């Protein structure tokens, strides 16, 4: 029996996870990497430092032309890719910047997904094709100034006025808000929480930008103000009532995040590994010291474990589906480990680690937001705890 010679290992993939991907999955990943390298990487540090995402509409159209917006949805101009392909795309987007992945994630997994799953046929035909191309940008209004982890306490109200609906309230920390053409807004109505498709040029709707951010600086973040926003009867999402609607959308977004965080982690690890090989101290490269090698080995192990978990969850989503606690397991683990990798990478770079000449500090600051949004680490811990024990610690 002849012995097989294993191919040379890749320092960024010691376990050979790439061998588990299909040619189609690798092609999607490569296409996303190419557009990121050409259109975002040369400028992202400057955008982050200035706190701007210029030409966001043009960027959305470029991403749409590649089929990345709502790529995991079927029909209405959407690409209909697999969950694994969508996950790999999120990983590559966030390897460039969390703000870029947030743009795509909010567009596809929140705004478009809500319309695709719960909207009327008319709503789907009106909005999804334009959102898939990036012609129309969407946002998702759930979080409020006083209600983040507890959306059941929302104060935004929807009341009937004849055949119309009237919305009043305020949403906070809304990605894409001030550049959106359409907002999916969740409000409390007499019969329960309802979702509404709100064109952003409707009188009474405004989206002032949120500035002075220390994280996700290359991302559009806004408030949503709804002051007597009058909508026709058919603006409501007809297929859902209650918190099941927005929470199912959040699960879609969380799935993309558990992949995306690995991209930020990979970028930090790659930078630290390269720096350790090139930086000389005490007469030899940093990579030659045991403590540095221990840091690099630990990061490689955690990056491998997180990638295997993401791939497993993606394969499961493509076959039998995912439970909410399984998505929580992935987001909690992968974001926590990505943050740890970013922080450890920063220590290898020393003082250079805080410079925007390198991506590490930018990723670390971004991941602090990723840790919190679409469910804080505490909330995902309690969701896992409830799945384990059958007891809710929230009520």
TrEMBL record:
<feature type="domain" description="Acyl-CoA dehydrogenase/oxidase N-terminal">
    <location>
        <begin position="22"/>
        <end position="135"/>
    </location>
</feature>
<keyword id="KW-0285">Flavoprotein</keyword>
<dbReference type="InterPro" id="IPR052033">
    <property type="entry name" value="Glutaryl-CoA_DH_mitochondrial"/>
</dbReference>
<comment type="similarity">
    <text>Belongs to the acyl-CoA dehydrogenase family.</text>
</comment>
<dbReference type="InterPro" id="IPR013786">
    <property type="entry name" value="AcylCoA_DH/ox_N"/>
</dbReference>
<feature type="domain" description="Acyl-CoA oxidase/dehydrogenase middle">
    <location>
        <begin position="139"/>
        <end position="229"/>
    </location>
</feature>
<dbReference type="Pfam" id="PF02771">
    <property type="entry name" value="Acyl-CoA_dh_N"/>
</dbReference>
<dbReference type="InterPro" id="IPR009100">
    <property type="entry name" value="AcylCoA_DH/oxidase_NM_dom_sf"/>
</dbReference>
<feature type="domain" description="Acyl-CoA dehydrogenase/oxidase C-terminal">
    <location>
        <begin position="242"/>
        <end position="388"/>
    </location>
</feature>
<dbReference type="Pfam" id="PF00441">
    <property type="entry name" value="Acyl-CoA_dh_1"/>
</dbReference>
<keyword id="KW-0274">FAD</keyword>
<dbReference type="InterPro" id="IPR036250">
    <property type="entry name" value="AcylCo_DH-like_C"/>
</dbReference>
<keyword id="KW-0560">Oxidoreductase</keyword>
<dbReference type="InterPro" id="IPR009075">
    <property type="entry name" value="AcylCo_DH/oxidase_C"/>
</dbReference>
<dbReference type="InterPro" id="IPR006091">
    <property type="entry name" value="Acyl-CoA_Oxase/DH_mid-dom"/>
</dbReference>
<dbReference type="InterPro" id="IPR037069">
    <property type="entry name" value="AcylCoA_DH/ox_N_sf"/>
</dbReference>
<dbReference type="Pfam" id="PF02770">
    <property type="entry name" value="Acyl-CoA_dh_M"/>
</dbReference>
<protein>
    <submittedName>
        <fullName>Acyl-CoA dehydrogenase family protein</fullName>
    </submittedName>
</protein>
<keyword id="KW-0809">Transit peptide</keyword>
<dbReference type="InterPro" id="IPR046373">
    <property type="entry name" value="Acyl-CoA_Oxase/DH_mid-dom_sf"/>
</dbReference>
């Amino acid at each position: 029996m002849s012995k097989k010679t294993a191919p040379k290992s890749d320092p960024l993939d010691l376990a050979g996870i790439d061998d588990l991907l299909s040619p189609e999955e690798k092609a999607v990943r490569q296409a996303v990497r190419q557009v990121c390298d050409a259109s975002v990487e040369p400028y992202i540090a400057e955008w982050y430092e200035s706190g701007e995402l210029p030409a966001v509409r043009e960027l959305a159209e470029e991403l749409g032309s590649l089929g990345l917006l709502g790529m995991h949805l079927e029909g209405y101009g959407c690409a209909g890719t697999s969950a694994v392909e969508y996950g790999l795309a999120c990983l590559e987007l966030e390897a460039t910047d969390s703000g870029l992945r947030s743009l795509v994630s909010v567009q596809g997994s929140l705004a478009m997904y809500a319309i695709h799953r719960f909207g009327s046929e008319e709503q789907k035909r009106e909005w999804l094709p334009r959102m898939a191309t990036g012609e129309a940008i969407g946002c998702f209004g759930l979080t409020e100034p006083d209600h983040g982890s507890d959306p059941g306490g929302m104060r935004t109200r929807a009341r009937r006025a004849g055949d119309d609906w009237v919305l009043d309230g305020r949403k906070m920390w809304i990605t894409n808000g001030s550049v959106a053409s359409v907002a999916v807004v969740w409000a409390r109505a007499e019969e329960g929480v309802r979702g509404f498709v709100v064109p952003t040029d409707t009188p009474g709707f405004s989206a002032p930008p949120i500035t002075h951010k220390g994280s996700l600086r290359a991302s559009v973040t806004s408030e949503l103000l709804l002051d007597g926003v009058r909508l026709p009867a058919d603006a409501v999402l007809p297929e859902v009532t209650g918190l099941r609607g927005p929470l199912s959308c959040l699960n879609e977004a969380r799935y993309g995040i558990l992949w995306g965080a690995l991209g930020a982690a990979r970028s930090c690890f790659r930078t630290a590994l390269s720096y350790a090989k090139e930086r000389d101290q005490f007469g030899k490269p940093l990579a030659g010291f045991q403590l540095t090698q221990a840091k690099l080995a630990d990061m490689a192990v955690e990056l491998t474990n997180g990638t295997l978990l993401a791939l497993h969850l993606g394969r499961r989503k493509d076959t039998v589906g995912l439970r909410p606690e399984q998505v929580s397991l992935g987001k909690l683990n992968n974001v926590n480990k990505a943050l740890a990798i970013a922080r450890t990478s920063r220590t290898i770079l020393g003082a250079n680690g805080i410079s925007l000449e390198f991506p590490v500090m930018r990723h670390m600051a971004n991941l602090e937001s990723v840790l919190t949004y679409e469910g804080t680490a505490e909330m995902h811990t309690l969701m896992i705890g409830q799945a384990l024990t059958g007891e809710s610690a929230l009520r």
